[in-house]
Write a structure and sequence with these properties.
Distance between the termini: 62 Å
Helix content: under 10%
Strand order of the largest sheet: 4-3-2-1-5-9-8
CATH topology of the largest domain: SH3 type barrels
Largest sheet: 7 strands, antiparallel
Radius of gyration: 16 Å
Order of helices and strands: EEHEEEEEHEEE
Shape: globular
CATH class of the largest domain: Mainly Beta
């Protein structure tokens, strides 16, 4: 039997990580060609919020594979492949105040049950270690909740 039959087909997705204490790391995540949760390819959000403690990243400089502990990842940034357009979710504008003093402002866009669609409800989802926030420039940041000091709402008026 060929070893290739045992491999799971994956695609590389360019990302930037901020890792504590290393700092900024540029490379690519290995994503499955088919998501187990949604139609289409696996997203970085799924990889970071999966129960596994480590993820695999292909570094560019130096060229090597690294296994990063998700608890040490402060945030991950990537370009959104397709514009977000879920009708059933109301975008929640907010600003995340980080432990390093930085401020990340954008929108959280996730379909939630109507009686649990507050910002607090989204932040308290137990099975999601990382918050997905959409920035104005089309970038997506996945923020480790452990590195957030507080979150404030932003009025869109």
């Amino acid at each position: 039997m060929s070893r290739d039959l045992l491999k799971i087909p994956k695609k590389l997705r360019p990302v930037t990580l901020w890792v504590h204490p290393e700092g900024r790391v540029i490379g690519s995540l290995f994503l499955r060609r088919h998501s187990s949760n949604f139609a289409g390819e696996e997203e970085p959000f799924e990889v970071l919020n999966h129960a596994n403690e480590f993820l695999v990243m292909k570094r560019e400089d130096p060229e090597e594979l690294r296994f990063y502990n998700k608890a040490s990842i402060v945030r991950l940034e990537y370009d959104e492949a397709a514009p977000w357009h879920a009708v059933e979710a109301k975008p929640l504008s907010c600003a995340l105040h980080m432990m390093d003093g930085s401020l990340i402002a954008g929108q959280i866009k996730k379909a939630m049950p109507p009686d649990h669609a507050r910002l607090l409800d989204y932040l308290n989802l137990e099975n999601e270690r990382f918050v997905k926030i959409h920035l104005e420039d089309g970038k997506v940041h996945l923020i480790n909740k452990s590195y957030i000091v507080c979150i404030t709402t932003v009025d869109e008026a």
